Amino acid sequence: MGVRVSLGAPKLRKVLLCKAFFFACDKVADTPPSRVGAAEGCDLLILLLFTAARRDEPIHKDSAMELLLETVALFCMKLAYETEDSSPILRDDLLMSEYEREVFGLLVRRGDMEAIQIKVGECLELALDAVGGIDSVLGRELHRLAGDFSAARTMEELDAPVIALKSYLKDIQ
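The chain above was modelled as a monomer; its predicted structure follows.
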């Protein structure tokens, strides 16, 4: 079992020699992921990149953005509703139904900045309440990062604030 990686002129191409991996890529690409927690978000992104490269497709930035937005929403829900004695909140929980990757994907493809900011803003409000509001140390920083997110006017401007929010929310879990 091995992996051969080669660099193509216009894009990175990865040729995988493991039939089991090819089978797994086909299954993941054709069906929505099930019972995936926040920690697996990076694994899904890597799998997305490998699947696109294997199928010789360009890697779309929209796919990465929708995954980042879903991850931010998931981390917010975890802060707001998850307790140590309960089962973890996962991406396919009913609580996450309005904040799924497919919902964010549709909004990203439409370029609907207002709707994206409203959806993420709802989640950030829950997380802000969970950390003690704007008067707490964690709340002030979260409020500052949420302000940066709200100030973005184009999809390209969303990159840095979303990544900063995801990192911060992951750190304060």
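The mean pLDDT is 76.
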